[in-house]
Input
Amino acid sequence: MECYITYCVKGYLAFNGENELIAEKLFPEDEMLNRLADLDEKKIVAEEMEIIEEVSKDYDEIIIESNKRLSDYSIEKLKIQTPNQAGEYLRSNYDKFGLDNEDITDIYQRLAIYKIKKESASEDKHLIQAINSIDEIDESISKLIERIREWYALYFPEMDIIKNNETYIKLISQNKTKENIMQAKPDAFPSNVMDLEDDINPLDLEIMNRYANSIFELQKTRKEIEEYIDSKMEEIAPNLRLLVGSSLGAKLISHAGGLKRLATYPSSTVQIMGAEKALFRHLKSGDRPPKYGLIYQHPQVRGAKWWNRGKIARMLAGKISLAVRRDVFTKTFDENAFDDFTEKVEEIEKNNPFPTKTTKKRKEDKGKSRNKKRKGKKRKKRR
Output
C-alpha cells in the first residue's frame, strides 16, 4: 500500500490512495513562521519526520511533496513527487481543512516580513553596509577636499605645499588663521613668503574653518567605520580576514551579497569577481578573459611580476574559497593560512623569474590589438 504526504501553512498531512486523511502533524502556533522559513531553506523540520515515521509503520511506499533531495531523508520506502495527488487534493479543498485563501495570503505576508527581518539581522549585512559606506565616504571626501583646496587658496595659497589631505584638513580645522597654521607646522612653510596681515573678512574665514571641520569629522567617521569593519571581520570571517585583510575581505562579501553566498562560489568565480565588464567583453568580442578582479587589490597580487599575477591570483582565489568555507561551515581558524599562501607566492616567483615565450607573445598581441583599436577610433573621428 502507498500513502501520500503533503504540507500547507498549518503543517503536514498524510492521505491514503482514496484521499482520506490518515495522519497530521501541525506546526505549533508560535513556531509556524520558523517552520515555514526552514522549509523554504530546504531543511527537514520535526513535524515532517514525525509524520513519515508514523505512516511508515502501516504503508509500504510513502510519496511525499518536498523541495529537498531523496538523499536528505535516508528512508528506503520514501519517494519524492512534486506535486503528488494529496497535494493537489488539499489545494483544491482548503475549506475542508479549515483554510481559506485570505488566511494563507496573510500567513505568507507575515512570513515575508519575518524573512526580511531575519535577513537584515545577519551580521554580514551590517558589514556590507559598512564597506559600501566607506566607498561613498571616500568619494565624498575626495570632492570636498578639492573644493576646500580651491577655496582656501584664495586666503592662503602657500597651503598647497601640504600634499597630504588629512594633514591639510586637520591644520585648517584646528587653526583658524594662517598664522596659527604656521605655528602648528613651522617646518612646512618658508617664513619669508608669508604675509600675516589680516587680509580676509572674518566671516569668510569662519565659514571655511567650519567647512574644513565637517570634512575632518567625516574623516574621523571613516576611521571609526574601518575599525568597525575590522572587528566585524574578526568576528564573522577570521580566516578570510587573515588571508586578504579586513577591507578586501569585506568587499568580496559585499560583491557576493553575503558570506554564505561567497562560500558557495567556486574559486574561478572568486578570482574574477569585480571584473564582470571584462568578462562580458571577452564573451562578446573574443578579447582575452580577465585573470583577476577585486583580488588584484591584494599586495601579493598587485606587487607580483606581471607574468606571475595570473598564477598567484588563481592560487589566492582557491585559498579564499577554502577560508570562507571554513568560516561558514566548520567555524575553525587556520592561523597558518597566510604563511602558507606567502610561501607558495615565493615559490611561484622563484620558479618563474622570467616570462616565457608564450607570455611574451600574448603581451605583444595584446599591445597590437590595443593599437588597432586606437587607430580604428581615430579613423572614425576623422570621418
